[in-house]
Specification:
The structure is a single chain. This protein is mainly β. It contains four helices and 30 strands.
């Protein structure tokens, strides 16, 4: 857990304002970094895309737009050969492909609006396609050139789509929308493929968290209903739809598949562990007695351990996660209400003291996005397959 290096990036102001409530439950560095084993690529929204080496030295910086949104920015960069692909929907309504060595623009595709998800690379015959889930349509793109290859009916929401699509054996699976939609479409078509390549579409889904594919089934957790879903990936038929107990409240993190288990993190009620299979089995519900902080981040698995990001960063052995079927720590509604009230009072106290210390007509600057790197040997960096079965 020792920090090896840390870089603070000066923000480009004005940034999106924290409005309170659920809109402020994130930071200015919400996107997941990616690495080719030699360099680290990070996306800080309006402040731009950065490339560092693994010792923390900055190699290049590229701006991709000035737009902001009250929900912030969340899409993560994707590597394809020598390209770094960035969804700058919030910043400029544009999908960019940058040279990963120099940061220079190679191609861009406009018209990417209301898209908070990360593109997915899909094997389509002997080539790869880049697929993005937009409001009301799926979009297939040539990652080499940025040329649009195909479109298909998509998530039935005219405003925005948050969950990232996943792919397996040339089939793309997507969920999302406030009305909730799940669908499967075969990649490799040309033009409008709704009538020829759309395999199924059902009124199930989640508005925020992304799904995972495993062994013929599609899994996800609804962001607010506290329900776990399993669908037959071939037909879209619901295999199970079960409520979690204890109730998780909000779940914005995407499900992680590891060691034959499904791990999903709630914002403030711990981690739920399910068996990855067509029978609903809640194996464990775990919390930290000394940490009640909120998290929206998906955990990752590395060398038999889970890394979980909240305010403090936790490292867990998977065996330790499975020690008990009973909750280790759970607060009831009244206790949580009292804790929130105490936090609000402390926050208001700090704000008033800070305000009194400020000179007239001076506002505090926005905090700089920050990147802190803990030990993670380059040799153990996960190899992301081109046709990955999971995207955070």
């Amino acid at each position: 857990g020792k920090i090896l290096w840390r870089k603070d990036v000066p923000p480009r102001l004005p940034e999106s304002a924290y409005r309170g409530g659920n809109s402020s439950r994130h930071g200015y560095a919400s996107s997941t970094p990616t690495s080719d084993g030699e360099r680290l690529f990070v996306f800080f929204g309006k402040s731009g895309v950065f490339c560092f080496d693994l010792e923390g030295k900055q190699h290049w910086h590229k701006l991709v737009g000035d737009g902001t949104h009250g929900w912030g920015s969340a899409a993560s960069p994707v590597l394809y050969k020598d390209l770094l692909i960035v969804n700058a929907s919030v910043e400029s309504g544009t999908l960019y492909a940058l040279n990963k060595n120099t940061g220079e623009e190679v191609w861009k595709l406009a018209g990417i609006r209301g898209v908070w998800n990360t593109p997915v690379l899909v094997n389509a015959g002997d080539k790869q396609e880049l697929v993005l889930s937009l409001p009301q349509r799926m979009l297939g793109i040539d990652p080499e050139t940025g040329k649009q290859l195909w479109t298909c009916a998509g998530i039935r929401d005219s405003g925005y789509v948050c969950p990232s699509a996943v792919a397996h054996d040339g089939i793309v699976y997507a969920i999302g929308g406030r009305r909730n939609t799940a669908l499967a479409v075969r990649a490799g078509g040309r033009g409008d493929v709704t009538k020829t390549h759309l395999l199924w579409m059902v009124d199930k889904g989640s508005n925020v968290s992304s799904p995972v594919y495993y062994d013929g089934y599609l899994y996800w957790f609804h962001e607010s209903r506290g329900i776990a879903y399993c669908l037959d990936a071939k037909t879209g038929k619901t295999v199970y739809e079960e409520r979690l107990n204890p109730r998780p409240r909000l779940m914005y993190a995407s499900v992680l598949l590891a060691d034959g288990k499904l791990y999903c993190v709630s914002q403030d009620r711990g981690v739920y562990v399910l068996a990855a299979g067509p029978k609903f089995q809640l194996l464990s519900h775990n919390t930290f007695a000394d940490d009640s902080s909120r998290t929206n981040a998906c955990p990752i698995a590395s060398d038999g351990q889970l890394l979980l990001r909240s305010r403090p960063i936790h490292l867990l052995h998977r065996q330790e996660v499975m020690v008990s079927r009973k909750p280790v720590f759970s607060r009831d509604r009244h206790e949580m209400s009292a804790i929130r009230s105490q936090r609000l009072q402390r926050h208001e106290g700090r704000f008033l003291r800070a305000k009194e210390a400020l000179p007239i007509n001076v506002s505090p600057a926005k905090p700089a996005p920050s990147l802190a790197i803990a030990p993670f040997p380059a040799a153990s960096l996960p190899n992301k397959p081109a046709d990955a079965d999971r995207r955070a």
